[in-house]
């Protein structure tokens, strides 16, 4: 039996049938019929953002912290273009979100109508897939497909563009179970022969390492559990990308810390010197590999990824395994156990001794001060004072983001939300709103920089409206710190435009929007300020005035391999050659 | 600091790839891509090639299964073996793409292209053009006292060769379809 309803009603019905409880959005002319339906129901909560970019990042935060798709509803033209950064961000970081946009009526498409934009054209390269629906009878099926594509295989953003006349017209509703999704079915099980080959290498390896990424988290909680079991059972060291933090606990004794450009010395050195690299759900991003022709020169490499195009894209691997992390790890463990749980004990012993020497370098060491708050110290205190709490952390982009990744520890997946692939300043605050919506009772902290915060600071107003007790932890160095660091290291200390003049009074700014604010600049008062932030029952902005010219180390300079890391300022002068300077 | 010198071979594709991209051989492959014939599918395929910096030497597309709404896109592309593998994997990732076949490696294949040549001239040159057309088994599909339009089918190389011959004989305009290709045999 088919049910007839208007396109606008179908949208709401389809969302309900997909189990959606929250939509992040902003109304406008081309979606008024849908907003009218939203008004007349109570199952789906609509979170009114202050800018469409904020809606998409909030949906990302929601998705990342729950594993469920985030949903966005915005109007045509400028609203759709405002969503583009968030879509690109979600595509780069493989975050499942479904964005619904309004469009001018079908008969006006192509006439440069008011608020018309070629939304599917503009968003084609920044979505996993998108659709323009011209027939109300097809609308519900397309929405169900959009959810299927966003959440299946390597997750990503999808977009459905809905002309206004399609929303007004009446058509047949297709429920999820009857919607055609069969032709998009990425392979989940890995090739058993390849997995067995990997097991053979694992049995013999002297210097193995697990290099894990966001794919473990995207694969779901089971993948993290299997990863933990595998690491404990084999005793191999493990490192992770920025995106994969929390899949293996930071408190675990096999944990080497994050790797990459600002990763830990022991993690990068182990990657460089290993003889077996097992990449699980990471993608050999350039922030990870450093200089390609000297990337881990001695190792055999295996790569587990659900996306075949990630394999052999930049790094040639010896054992490619296409499949879902959880499925592959299950087979891997089973095969490894059935063959007698063998590892090269002598090799591993020597390997851990070597790792111990690298750890002893204590690469995150910094010179503290009792007159000025060092950003590293601020994060150490934040970590200390929030340990054991039901805590979620988002970040903006810059030095503070890297320090947060270095100094905060994550023992569970889905607790750390940051813009990795795109590096989007302005991600963290709206993302923190999205996380808090999904976890109303949790402590949600956005570790922010002064400049990034201002890119989407209007979203404080959203937090206030919906009583989201998000905490904005701003490390204010009055600089575009990361830009300044590169200018110091690469451009002869010519600080072109990286000094932010006339910054606002942040607490007053917060107060103007109804959020509580405080500034702290004395290290002795930091703990008290952090405690006030945590304990305050509502949104809170804590501005921490920090050392202005602190650099973030370790750092693999552009164009250098992993074993050429800079550990501190003394090494940094003229460390980056001309070849490196052209790289990003 | 010295002026920036971009080292020869620094790739545009990866910020850290300082390897010489010419170190590997460039291969030419013919790919057959079966897609849902839905709006925008060609834009997705072309956008992939331009967005990721891949080459397109030739591209043809038409619906081949009206009831199933399937189209077949034939793409001739060039690149290192690694890039060709990437292209296939990236094509396979596009949601409305059903099959990607590399006809260059999946056994023998036939490749054909159709071209229309307008050759204008009179006297000896006109006679010579007609004679050569005959040798190449080109058909005359239009003629006036000063011109012919020849239709020719064959491999791209054959069409190139015919074009070289027609150029001094008054080649005025040339339209090519691009390559259509199928694997040989019953499968
Ligand atoms: C939207 C956007 N624009 C520009 C950049 C380039 N960028 C990267 S980090 C950075 C500075 C960030 O400053 P701030 O938020 O204060 O963080 P800090 O590095 O000082 O901790 C800039 C401009 C970016 N990543 N994103
Ligand atoms: Mg700053």
UniProtKB/TrEMBL annotation, chain A:
Cofactor dependence is on:
Mg(2+); thiamine diphosphate
Keywords from the UniProt entry: Amino-acid biosynthesis, Branched-chain amino acid biosynthesis, Magnesium, Metal-binding, Thiamine pyrophosphate, Transferase
Residues covered by the Thiamine pyrophosphate enzyme central domain: 195-332
The record describes how the cofactor is bound as:
Binds 1 Mg(2+) ion per subunit.
So which domain of life are we looking at?
Bacteria
Which intervals hold domain Thiamine pyrophosphate enzyme TPP-binding? 397-544
**Reaction(s) catalysed by this chain's protein:** 2 pyruvate + H(+) = (2S)-2-acetolactate + CO2
Occurrences of domain Thiamine pyrophosphate enzyme N-terminal TPP-binding (ranges)? 5-120
Does this entry carry the keyword Amino-acid biosynthesis?
yes
Enzyme Commission no: 2.2.1.6
Top EC class for this record? transferase
Q: In which pathway does it act?
A: Amino-acid biosynthesis; L-isoleucine biosynthesis; L-isoleucine from 2-oxobutanoate: step 1/4; Amino-acid biosynthesis; L-valine biosynthesis; L-valine from pyruvate: step 1/4
Entry's InterPro entries? Acetolactate_synth_lsu (IPR012846), AHAS_TPP (IPR039368), DHS-like_NAD/FAD-binding_dom (IPR029035), THDP-binding (IPR029061), Thiamin_PyroP_enz_cen_dom (IPR012000), Thiamin_PyroP_enz_TPP-bd_dom (IPR012001), TPP_enz (IPR045229), TPP_enzyme_TPP-bd (IPR011766)
Q: Which NCBIfam families match?
A: acolac_lg, PRK09107.1
Q: Which family does it belong to?
A: Belongs to the TPP enzyme family.
Record protein name field: Acetolactate synthase
Query: What organism does the UniProt record list as the source?
Result: Sinisalibacter aestuarii
Automatic annotation (TrEMBL), chain B:
**Pathway, per record:** Amino-acid biosynthesis; L-isoleucine biosynthesis; L-isoleucine from 2-oxobutanoate: step 1/4; Amino-acid biosynthesis; L-valine biosynthesis; L-valine from pyruvate: step 1/4
Task: Enumerate the spans annotated as ACT domain.
Answer: 30-105
Signal peptide span:
none
Q: Name the domain of life.
A: Bacteria
**Which EC numbers characterise this protein's activity in its record?**
2.2.1.6
Keyword list, A-Z: Amino-acid biosynthesis, Branched-chain amino acid biosynthesis, Transferase
Catalyzed chemical reaction(s) = 2 pyruvate + H(+) = (2S)-2-acetolactate + CO2
Pfam name, any one: ACT_AHAS_ss
Assembly and oligomerization: Dimer of large and small chains.
The role this protein plays is: Catalyzes the conversion of 2 pyruvate molecules into acetolactate in the first common step of the biosynthetic pathway of the branched-amino acids such as leucine, isoleucine, and valine.
Q: Which family does it belong to?
A: Belongs to the acetolactate synthase small subunit family.
**Listed NCBIfam families:** acolac_sm, PRK11895.1
Q: What is this protein called?
A: Acetolactate synthase small subunit
Please report the organism this UniProt entry assigns to the protein: Sinisalibacter aestuarii
Which gene is the coding source of this polypeptide chain? ilvH
């Amino acid at each position: 039996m088919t049910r007839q309803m208007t396109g606008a009603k179908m949208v709401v019905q389809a969302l309900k049938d997909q189990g959606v409880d929250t939509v992040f959005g902003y109304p406008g002319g081309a979606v008024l019929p849908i907003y009218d339906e939203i008004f007349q129901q109570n199952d789906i909560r609509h979170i009114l953002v202050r800018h469409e970019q904020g809606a998409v990042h909030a949906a990302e935060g929601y998705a990342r912290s729950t594993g469920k798709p985030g949903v966005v509803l915005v109007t045509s033209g400028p609203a759709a273009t405002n969503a583009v950064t968030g879509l690109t961000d979600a595509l780069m970081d493989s975050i499942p979100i479904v964005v619904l946009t309004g469009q001018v009526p079908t008969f006006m498409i192509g006439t440069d109508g008011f608020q018309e934009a070629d939304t599917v054209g503009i968003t084609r390269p920044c979505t996993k897939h998108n659709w323009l629906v011209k027939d109300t009878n097809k609308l519900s099926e397309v929405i169900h497909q959009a959810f299927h594509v966003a959440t299946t295989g390597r997750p990503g953003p999808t977009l459905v563009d809905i002309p206004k006349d399609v929303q007004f017209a009446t058509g047949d509703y297709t429920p999820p179970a009857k919607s055609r999704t069969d032709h998009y079915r990425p392979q989940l099980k890995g090739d058993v022969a390849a997995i067995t080959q990997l097991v053979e290498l694992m049995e013999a390896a002297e210097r193995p390492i697990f290099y894990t990424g966001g794919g473990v988290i995207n694969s779901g909680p089971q993948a993290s559990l299997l990863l933990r079991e595998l690491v404990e059972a084999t005793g191999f060291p493990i490192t992770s990308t920025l995106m994969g933090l929390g899949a293996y606990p930071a408190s675990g004794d096999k944990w080497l810390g994050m790797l990459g450009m600002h990763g830990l010395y022991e993690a990068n050195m182990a990657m460089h010197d290993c003889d077996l690299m097992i990449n699980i759900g990471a993608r050999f991003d350039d922030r990870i590999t450093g200089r390609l022709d000297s990337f881990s020169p001695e190792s055999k490499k295996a790569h587990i990824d659900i996306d075949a195009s990630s394999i052999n894209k930049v790094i040639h691997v010896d054992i490619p395994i296409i499949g879902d992390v959880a499925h592959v790890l299950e087979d891997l463990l089973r095969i490894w156990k059935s063959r007698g749980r063998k590892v090269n004990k002598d090799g591993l012993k020597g390997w851990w001794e070597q790792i111990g020497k690298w750890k002893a370098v204590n690469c995150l060491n910094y010179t503290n001060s009792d007159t000025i708050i060092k950003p590293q110290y601020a994060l150490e205190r934040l970590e200390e004072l929030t340990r054991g709490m039901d805590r979620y952390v988002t970040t903006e982009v810059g030095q503070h983001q890297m320090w947060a990744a270095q100094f905060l520890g994550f023992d569970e997946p889905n607790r750390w939300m940051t813009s990795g692939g795109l590096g989007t300043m302005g991600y963290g605050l709206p993302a923190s709103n999205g996380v808090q919506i999904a976890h109303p009772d949790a402590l949600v902290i956005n570790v922010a920089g002064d400049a990034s915060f201002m890119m989407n600071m209007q979203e404080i107003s959203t937090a206030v409206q919906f009583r989201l007790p998000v905490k904005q932890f701003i490390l204010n160095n009055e600089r575009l710190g990361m830009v300044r660091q590169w200018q110091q290291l690469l451009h002869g200390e010519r600080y072109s435009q990286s000094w932010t003049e006339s910054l606002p009074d942040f607490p007053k700014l917060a107060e103007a929007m109804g959020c509580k604010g405080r500034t702290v600049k004395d290290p002795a008062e930091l703990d008290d300020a952090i405690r006030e932030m945590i304990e305050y029952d509502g949104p809170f902005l804590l501005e921490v005035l920090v050392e202005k010219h602190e650099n973030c180390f370790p750092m693999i300079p552009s164009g250098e391999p992993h074993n050429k890391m800079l550990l501190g300022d003394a090494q940094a002068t003229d460390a980056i050659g001309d070849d490196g300077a052209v790289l990003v | 600091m010295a002026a920036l010198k971009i080292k020869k071979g620094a790739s545009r594709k990866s910020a850290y790839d300082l390897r010489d991209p010419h170190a590997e051989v460039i291969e030419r492959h013919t790919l057959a891509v079966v897609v849902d014939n839905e709006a925008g599918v060609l834009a997705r395929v072309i956008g992939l090639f331009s967005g990721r910096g891949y080459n397109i030497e030739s591209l043809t597309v038409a619906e081949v299964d009206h009831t199933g709404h399937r189209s077949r896109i034939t793409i001739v592309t060039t690149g290192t073996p690694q890039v060709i593998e990437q292209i296939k994997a990236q094509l396979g990732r596009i949601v409305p793409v059903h099959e990607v076949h590399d006809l260059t490696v999946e056994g023998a294949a036939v490749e054909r292209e159709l071209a229309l040549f307008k050759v204008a001239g009179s006297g000896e040159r006109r006679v010579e053009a007609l004679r050569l057309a005959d040798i190449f088994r080109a058909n005359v599909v239009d003629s006036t006292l000063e011109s012919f339009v020849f239709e020719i089918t064959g491999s791209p190389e054959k069409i190139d060769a015919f074009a070289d011959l027609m150029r001094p004989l008054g080649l005025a305009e040339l339209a090519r379809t691009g390559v259509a290709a199928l694997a040989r045999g019953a499968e």
